[in-house]
TrEMBL record, chain B:
Top-level taxon of origin: Bacteria
Pfam families in UniProt: BPD_transp_1
Membrane topology of this protein: Multi-pass membrane protein
Subcellular location: Cell membrane
CDD domains for the chain: TM_PBP2
One annotated GO biological process: transmembrane transport
Source species: Mesorhizobium sanjuanii
Name listed for the protein in its UniProt record: Peptide ABC transporter permease
Cited Gene3D superfamilies: MetI-like (1.10.3720.10)
TrEMBL record, chain C:
Name assigned to this protein: Peptide ABC transporter permease
Membrane-protein topology: Multi-pass membrane protein
Family: Belongs to the binding-protein-dependent transport system permease family. CysTW subfamily.
Listed Gene3D superfamilies: MetI-like
Source species: Mesorhizobium sanjuanii
TM annotation in the entry: 21-41, 82-101, 108-131, 156-181, 202-224, 260-283
Location of the protein in the cell: Cell membrane
Keywords: Cell membrane, Membrane, Transmembrane, Transmembrane helix, Transport
Classification of source organism: Bacteria, Pseudomonadati, Pseudomonadota, Alphaproteobacteria, Hyphomicrobiales
PANTHER family: INNER MEMBRANE ABC TRANSPORTER PERMEASE PROTEIN YDCU-RELATED, INNER MEMBRANE ABC TRANSPORTER PERMEASE PROTEIN YDCU-RELATED-RELATED
Limits of the ABC transmembrane type-1 domain: 72-279
Any one cellular-component term (Gene Ontology): plasma membrane
Major subcellular location class: membrane
TrEMBL record, chains D, E:
UniProt-recorded name of the protein: Spermidine/putrescine import ATP-binding protein PotA
Domain ABC transporter positions: 4-234
Record keywords, A-Z: ATP-binding, Cell membrane, Membrane, Nucleotide-binding, Translocase, Transport
Recorded name of the encoding gene: potA
Subunit: The complex is composed of two ATP-binding proteins (PotA), two transmembrane proteins (PotB and PotC) and a solute-binding protein (PotD).
InterPro entries recorded: AAA+_ATPase, ABC_SmlMolc_Importer, ABC_transporter-like_ATP-bd, ABC_transporter-like_CS, Mo/tungstate-bd_C_term_dom, P-loop_NTPase, PotA-like, Transp-assoc_OB_typ2
Length: 330, 262, 287, 355, 355
């Protein structure tokens, strides 16, 4: 990475690679953005491990920040270089997942939900309960993401448990087992979801809030997000600077740009996005914007549960459970 | 004679049915590259916007160029090395030959995902790193077993006394190979080359692990694009590639007889 | 008489021809895979900076959970089914190409069979989704010609996986069989028929045995990767798309448990090699 | 039951006429030798009869029935290919067993018959070998065993004994004749061995450039060739050319040659006389004039070639070389350079229209 | 410059000894015929000389130098394979041109030489054909042209004329001899045609079961076979068995046969006499007793077989069939069933130790 390049590692299609945004950033700072992508958090970590010095900015789900720090993959950030950092909502900025020994390892960017989304054509009135997923009427028209952690945490919510401290695993397993016959397929990318809705193959399924927003805003699909009364999984995505970055200044500039209200508003309007961690950015949205009105609703805030880091052992146990469920329906 | 004709006719019909099966998804792909909906939605609405968009998409174009270059180089290297190895395995007997032959299967049998990861780690460890060169290194290795298996299958049908005849006429090993053996196994070499090209050109997993931003290939681009939200630009570029290769191949078929004339 | 020629000078003559290919394979495949073998005996990856130790646990895991043998069995069955379909569909086509079609059209068709191979696998799978789903091309086309209404929704099912895989792999069978079929001297076929053999008997007794090297090569090139496949099953199989390859993928992608993933892969490799070794004498006898 | 009639058969490869209006009636149960120079269409003719290849025009009937619509495997023929065409994937025994086994014979019966056939071709012990482990002659014998073991109606043999030494060849000839007689197989046989053709066959047909030039019993063709080509192709012949006298010819130097066989021709036209080398007496002096050996020529021995049971003398006269075969009885050999007198009877002289 | 010496050559295939301690000195520029029954090891021997296959023991020298380490392509041999081994991917002309072109000759030179070689084998017009478009005999001639066009030091011919008709065969024999003499190629020639072997070669070697049984100039082998096998294998022979009298044998019925050739044996041991069928005089009466035809036997004609220039009479006597060849001079034919007197000279009788 030459000094003028900023190498960014992020999900594909997740804001940082929007052409208009890059153009604006490059114009403003003279840095050139080079994007690389990952398809799972594990893969992101592997890329960091096997490419020391290649990346300048990496987007990490806060639940994984811990691991990245432990492995010394990311370095502390001098937040004084980020003018917009001051506007980050304090509860996010102070998240113990991102701050260690007083040093900031991750700059909160956006947060969102893994909740439900529906095909508007299949519902006269949107459902309010997570149990809609088990409704016989939707048999064979339900989707869920092919991700063990999400599936198990979804099961925890459906059985009224704390996603970060699941006491009754058997109940989760039983609940998910009874969900399996409802399932059409397991989705793994936004595109899967959108195509299935477009061809009217599904009624309901788990979905990410930002993605549902994009489906509606950008692709004009009949999709709307449902935050069930039982609650939903919330996650926080943050930016970090990998150890060995050759362009820390550029990285800081980029991160600052990413949390800028101007960028955020444009992103939401043109493409659709999760909720910004920058309170000013959210306030810059129209009053009735979903990300402001619904996501900002204190009632919603009470229902959602933020993901905490999980251990490798837990992750493997979740995967084993998930795989067993998938084998059992074969 | 009558039955022969009927069978011949049925044979032709069968081939056309097979081609229909093989081309069905390709045709759909081509059609969808002209459809407005990025989600394969019907009814069909004609547009060329995706081709226009493709034209603007430098990343996709450069990835396509990388893919083509790597596939062509992979094909050449793996065909040369693979054919040479096949010849050696055919001509000579030595201890451990069975093992060498068995060693061709791990690259095929182990899911590419594992091989790709292994390459990533190993290349990282020994300092080869990632990038187009690493991709090429990996692709050739993946294609080699295909070439060797296919060329060996063809070699089994070769009559060794033809080599003897050529040598008795004073031809050295190389002349024998080039003028007698190669022409006979040519259909196998070509099939091997076509496979090698396919292995490389459609190689996602290994390329995915070995590519770096900017040094990436078309399948990696496509995979990434699909996650975001598929755009028919990908159908468009795929359609262009298929149409151009078809034209090239039919052109080649006119002038070059490699079906293995008797 | 050919045995004598073959054994002539052995390894020394073979080496210059073998070395480049095997050297390449060593650097790009064998050494990396050896590292993987090494990993498969570890408790944790050194890469993650955690302490690690040697263990057989990853291999033991295969046997301690019914999940893995069940899936391996399912994958082997899938491999077998796809291979058989490829033979059933591909062999006759190869025969027609090699023995019925004459002249230029043969070369052209030969190439046309390979061409779909050059299109992107993912794009192809997506196209299949378009064909197979409810309200897709197949459904619509059938309902257009059939007098009664049926619902064809093959998408996200085992048949969809088979169709997708057969489509991806059948060219291997066509081409490898073509290569050996084309080399069969017509006078052998004439000889057999003059002895009273019907076309079917000729096929069974002479043509198939003589084309066996191609059939075997094709079968190996299909069976082996299909057993480890994960992409097509995942996308086309839906709920039923979990196979041995997909759980290996999960170990690598979802939980970063490479040691277990590698162990599972090498178990797969061992099983595949044992199957090939067991099949070899049977096939050689048939040939 | 299974004679073979070919009528007006023609077959071209591109511009080249490999068969040109050939009609032959192969009698049921007969033994027919097909002779002709290399490339004259012998193999092509056999392939039409077998049904591997189809004539451009003309008809083929086996056992009185047209076989136009009868596929190869229903024609009940046995064939020995010029290149043997053994199945490389089968053992020798399996090659021979093939015809019986596709017919569904019992295993035990097959084993028996195969062993008998292999014994017959003196390969009884090589049943388990693969074709590539055999010598040329051994392969040829396997091909022969394979063709006869099914007891076909018609046997098409394309130089079936060409790769065998004389002793084995004679043995095989005897076996072939025996089988052919016993089962009454109509046999059509291509050979380049003249003695074989003459000794084995009931009739001989000679092809040239795709056309049938002469056809008949061996001795008839040998004794009364209808053309110079036939005379020199089957057996050896000295051809003397001149003007017909009606009962013979007058050579350019005025000598007349009396002919007792062949066509009658109007005097004065160009004609040839063919004389077999073995019919000519060679002597140092003319001896007592002998009415029988009425034709007389003087010459000088230029060469003698030893050929086992006989020798050929090349005698020069008037810029023509005349060949004389003399049995090697162990006495009276002539030396090169010697002046000699050649004499032969008019009965040994065949008058042939100039070609 | 390029004689070929093989010394104590052995080669086994599994338990089968294809060559068993064979030593032959093929003289430089000589024409050597290799005879032997099918499977006796002829092809195997040629393959060792060519360097396609390697002996288990023994040595081979070409031009006085051991060729153990000389690869095929450096041995400068020409070879005609029993099955031709033409390159299927090349035209006839390219097949023939191959040897010259790998040597890097100029295009024009090659074209010239190839045309000459093709003309020589009478295929001048078929240069552009592919091998599969040729008849059997045409293919064989291409193989021959391909082998000789490079003017090798040693020519190894495995039945190179087997698929040719007599006339063409004779033409090719003449050409082969001419080339061989002109360039002085050492030629080793496998043939099953006895006449060919006898007329063309300087020396003949007879193989049997991998062993060399006799070796020498044609007439010597023909006239003085050293074994019953040699006597009957090359040419035909009547073998009479009995006890030696020292200068002949006494048959079981007491008749004595005087032998003027062959070995001398101690009286009383078992021995055989070999008599060539053409050496026997056949007559209706004994005629004037003739000192020359001292050996006399009575018999009865059982069969006559016409073979063109001669006929063979089968004469039965004392449960043995004696073959007599009589030249077809056109007169005096005996009928079957006739009582006859057979006589031949002691000089025509070869005494052979019992085998
Ligand atoms: N690869 C082999 N394996 C086993 N036996 C073999 C092999 N090659 C040749 N033989 C045997 O060796 C012997 C000699 O074979 P060779 O080909 O030299 O015979 P030949 O004299 O050329 O006979 P022919 O006149 O029939 O061609 C034969 O009995 C043959 O069966
Ligand atoms: N496929 C072909 N294409 C062109 N010409 C051919 C083809 N097959 C045969 N011929 C020609 O047809 C003629 C007759 O061939 P055929 O094989 O019948 O000859 P043959 O009498 O059997 O000769 P031989 O004694 O040499 O085997 C030959 O001149 C040959 O070159
Ligand atoms: N296609 C980009 C989607 C990014 C969503 N991030 C969600 C993280 C959930 N663990
Ligand atoms: Mg022929
Ligand atoms: Mg031989």
């Amino acid at each position: 990475a030459t000094a003028a390049d900023v190498h960014v590692l992020n999900w594909k299609g997740y804001g940082a690679d929007e052409p208009w945004a890059i153009a604006a950033f490059e114009k403003a700072t003279g840095n050139k953005v080079v994007n690389d992508f990952f398809n799972s958090e594990q893969e992101m970590l592997t890329k960091l491990r096997t490419n020391p010095g290649l990346y300048d900015v990496v987007m990490i789900n806060a639940a994984f920040n811990d691991q990245a720090m432990a492995e010394k993959l990311i370095q502390p950030i001098d937040v004084s270089k980020l003018p917009n950092y001051a506007d980050i909502s304090p509860d996010k900025a102070g998240s113990p997942m991102l701050v260690r020994d007083g040093k900031v390892y991750g700059v909160p960017w956006v947060w969102g939900l893994t909740a439900l989304a529906i095909n508007e054509k299949s519902f006269d009135t949107p459902p309010t309960s997570i149990t809609e997923m088990w409704n016989e009427a939707h048999k064979g028209r339900v989707v869920i993401r092919d991700d063990a952690v999400e599936a198990v945490q979804f099961g925890a919510i459906a059985t009224g448990q704390n996603i970060n401290d699941i006491k009754d695993m058997e109940a989760v397993k039983a609940k998910l087992t009874s969900l399996m016959p409802q399932i059409k397929t397991f989705w793994s990318s936004e595109n899967d979801w959108n195509q299935m809705v477009a061809s009217n193959q599904i009624d309901i399924g788990t979905y990410w809030s930002g993605s549902a927003d994009r489906a509606k805003t950008h692709f004009k699909l009949p999709v709307s997000l449902v935050i069930p009364q039982e609650g939903a999984v919330a996650w926080l995505d943050a930016f970090s600077i990998p150890v060995g970055s050759k362009n820390v200044t550029g990285a800081e500039a980029f991160i600052n740009y990413m949390i800028d209200p101007k960028f955020y508003v444009e992103w939401v309007t043109k493409v659709g996005a999760p909720v910004s961690a920058n309170t000013k950015a959210v306030e810059a949205l129209p009053e009735d914007a979903f990300n402001r009105k619904v996501m900002g609703d204190p009632d919603v805030a009470k229902r959602i549960q933020f993901q905490a880091p999980i251990t490798d052992t837990q992750r493997e146990a979740y995967l084993a459970l998930w795989q067993q469920l998938k084998v059992d329906v074969k | 004679m009558a039955t022969t004709r009927i069978l011949e006719w049925l044979g032709r019909l069968y081939i056309w049915l097979l081609l229909a099966f093989l081309y069905l998804p390709i045709i759909i792909m081509a059609l969808m590259s002209f459809n407005v909906s990025p989600f394969y939605q019907l009814p069909f609405e004609w547009t060329t916007e995706w081709y226009a968009a493709l034209w603007q998409n430098e990343q996709l174009i450069s990835a396509t160029r990388n893919s083509l270059e790597i596939a062509i180089i992979t094909t050449i290297i793996s065909v040369v090395l693979g054919s040479a190895a096949s010849l050696a395995l055919f001509r000579y007997d030595f201890r451990g030959k069975k093992i060498l032959q068995a060693l061709l299967f791990p690259p095929i049998a182990i899911p590419w995902l594992i091989t790709g990861t292994a390459m990533l780690i190993f290349f990282f460890g020994v300092g080869i790193g990632r990038g187009l060169l690493a991709i090429l290194l990996g692709h050739v290795a993946l294609a080699l077993p295909y070439v060797i298996v296919v060329v060996s299958a063809r070699l089994q049908t070769f009559a060794p006394e033809l080599e003897e005849a050529a040598r008795s006429l004073g031809a050295n090993q190389w002349q024998v190979t080039r003028r007698v053996t190669l022409p006979w196994i040519m259909p196998g070499v070509i099939a091997g080359g076509l496979f090698a090209f396919a292995v490389s050109f459609d190689q996602f997993v290994v390329s995915y692990f070995l590519s770096t931003p900017g040094q990436t290939t078309l399948p990696v681009e496509i995979y990434a694009a699909i996650r975001k939200g598929f755009t028919p630009e990908i159908n468009a570029v795929s359609t262009i590639i298929i149409v151009v290769s078809m034209a090239l191949m039919l052109f080649a078929a006119r002038f070059f007889k490699f079906g293995g004339g008797k | 008489m050919q045995g004598a020629t073959a054994s002539r000078s052995g390894l020394r003559s073979a080496l210059p021809l073998l070395l480049p290919a095997y050297l390449w394979l060593t650097v790009a495949i064998f050494l990396p895979l050896s590292a993987m073998v090494f990993f498969s005996f570890m408790t944790d990856l050194p890469l993650s900076g955690k302490p690690w130790a040697f263990t057989l646990g990853n291999y033991a895991a295969f046997f301690s959970q019914s999940l893995y043998p069940t899936l391996l069995w399912a994958s082997l069955r899938l491999g077998l089914e796809v291979t058989l379909w490829c033979i059933v569909i591909g062999y006759p086509a190869a025969y027609v190409l090699a023995k019925v079609l004459k002249g230029r059209s043969r070369e052209a068709i030969f190439l046309l069979v390979i061409l779909p191979f050059w299109s992107n696998g993912l794009v192809r799978i997506f196209s299949w989704a378009m064909v197979l789903r409810e309200g897709g091309i197949l459904d619509t086309a059938l309902n257009a010609v059939l007098p009664f209404k049926i619902n064809i929704d093959l998408m996200y099912s085992y048949p969809a996986v088979i169709i997708g895989l057969v489509h991806s792999y059948v060219p291997y069978m066509v081409l490898t069989c073509y290569l050996t079929l084309q080399a069969i001297d017509d006078s052998l076929i004439e000889a057999g028929r003059s002895l009273g053999a019907s076309r079917l008997q000729m096929l069974k007794r002479v043509i198939i045995p003589l084309s066996m090297p191609g059939l075997v090569a094709g079968a190996a090139l299909i069976f082996v990767p299909v057993v480890g496949s994960f992409m097509e099953p995942r996308i086309l199989g839906g709920r039923t798309g979990t196979f041995y390859g997909t759980v290996i993928e999960d170990q690598f992608v979802a939980v970063f448990n490479w040691p277990l993933g590698a162990a599972l892969s090498f178990i797969l490799l061992a099983v595949v090699l044992v199957i090939l070794a067991l099949a070899a004498p049977v096939l050689r006898k048939a040939a | 039951m299974a004679g073979v009639q070919v009528s007006n058969l023609s077959r071209s490869f591109g511009a080249h006429k490999a068969l040109d209006d050939v009609s032959i009636d192969f009698a049921d149960g007969g033994f027919y030798a097909l002779l002709g120079p290399s490339g004259s269409g012998k193999t092509t003719l056999l392939r039409q009869i077998a049904g591997f290849d189809f004539p451009d025009s003309g008809r083929i009937a086996i056992g009185g029935e047209s076989v136009e619509r009868v596929p190869v495997e229903k024609r009940r023929i046995g064939i020995v290919f010029q290149n043997y065409a053994l199945f490389p994937n089968m053992s020798v025994a399996d090659n021979v067993a093939f015809g019986l086994s596709v017919r569904g014979e019992a295993k035990a019966v097959i084993a028996d018959e195969v062993q008998r056939a292999l014994d017959l071709v003196q390969l009884g012990k090589l049943g388990s070998r693969r074709p590539h482990q055999l010598s040329g002659g051994q392969r040829q014998r396997v091909a022969l065993a394979r063709a006869i073991v099914t007891k076909p109606r018609v046997l098409l043999l394309d130089e079936p004994l060409g790769a065998l030494d004389k002793a084995l060849r004679v043995d095989m000839q005897i076996e072939l004749k025996r089988i052919q007689r016993e089962i009454g197989i109509t046999t059509i046989f291509v050979t380049h061995d003249q003695e074989e053709a003459l000794t084995m066959s009931d009739r001989i047909g000679i092809l040239r450039d795709g056309r049938l030039v002469q056809e008949g019993p061996p001795e008839e063709i040998y004794d009364s060739p209808k053309s110079e080509f036939a005379a020199t192709f089957l057996g050896d012949a000295n051809i003397l050319r001149g003007d017909t006298t009606g009962t013979g010819i007058r050579l350019p130097d005025g000598t007349t040659i009396a002919a007792g066989a062949g066509v009658s021709l109007a005097a004065g036209t160009k004609a040839s006389c063919a004389v077999r080398p073995e019919r000519i007496r060679i002597a140092i002096d003319a001896g007592v004039p002998d009415q029988t050996y009425a034709n007389l020529l003087k010459g000088q021995v230029s060469k003698r070639i030893f050929a086992g049971n006989n020798s050929t003398y090349f005698v020069e006269r008037d810029s023509q070389t005349i060949k004389v075969i003399v049995q090697n009885t162990g006495i009276e050999r002539l030396v090169e350079g010697q002046d000699v007198m050649l004499s032969w009877s008019p009965e040994s002289t065949v008058l042939i229209a100039a070609s």
